[in-house]
Amino acid sequence: MSRDNKRTALAIVAVTMLALPAARASAATSTAMTVKGNEATASFSVNESIACGTTTATRTTFVSVQMFETRPVGKAAPAPATQTVVVVSRFETCTFTGSFDIGFFNTFTLQMTALSRATLAGHFVLEGGTVVDANLALTGVAPVQQGTFMQRSNLGKVMVSQHSVGSQSAATIAGTVSLDGHALPTSQMLSPEGFLANSTGGEVIVIRP
């Protein structure tokens, strides 16, 4: 199970829960809920030749697209949603300079069938202005792995206890990605990493006065 990704999903729900009116109560309050959903991630790098004076240099671009569902179950649970995180970093050997951009979204839909296939698609405008158009198809490959995650954190007057269990599989990646209108040579992906997951996570939040 992808521990870091599940921790991110539960943390988003935790922040939402802390904004609820119960957090302003004079007595200690607690909230328990279950989060269940699918997750798909694709990341890869590509190298391209660029002009550098009278010769050429290399520009390396890294792209990551992650989508995961949050389907909270509980008395005060927020509405179901799909969270998307898109990351782009670049480095070129001509000037030895790099750049990094990231975007967070909750208006896209994850199209996924069990652990067999998924589609990561959308028009994303990142925080630094980079425009990403992605249409990636992931296909799951055996074996399917099982895993668990448990964590307890104390943040001032707030105690958060999290746990999750689920399954995941590696996945192949195919499709297209363009950055600011420039199509990347995705047929020449370097170090492609894709995975599909489905998990159920539980969370208890205790807020002391």
Descriptive report:
By secondary structure, the protein is mainly beta. The protein has one domain. 8% of the residues lie in helices and 68% in strands. Strands 1, 2, 3, 4, 5, 6, 7, 8, 9, 10 and 11 form an 11-stranded antiparallel β-sheet that branches. The chain starts with a helix and ends with a strand.
SSE layout and pairings?
Layout: H1 3-18, E1 29-52, E2 55-70, E3 72-73, E4 81-92, E5 97-105, E6 111-113, E7 117-125, E8 131-155, E9 158-179, E10 182-183, E11 190-207
Antiparallel strand pairs: 1-2, 1-3, 1-11, 2-4, 4-5, 6-7, 7-8, 8-9, 9-10, 9-11
Helix fraction, binned, reads under 10%
Overall geometric form: globular
Find the count of extended strands (DSSP E, 2+ residues).
Answer: 11
- Report strand %: over 45%
Order of helices and strands: HEEEEEEEEEEE
Which structural category fits the helices and strands?
A: mainly beta
Count of the domains? 1
Uncertain segments are 1-25
List the quaternary state of the chains.
single chain
Distance between the termini: 35 Å
What can be said about the biggest beta sheet?
Answer: 11 strands, antiparallel
Number of helices: 1
Mean pLDDT: 80
Cα-atom radius of gyration: 20 Å
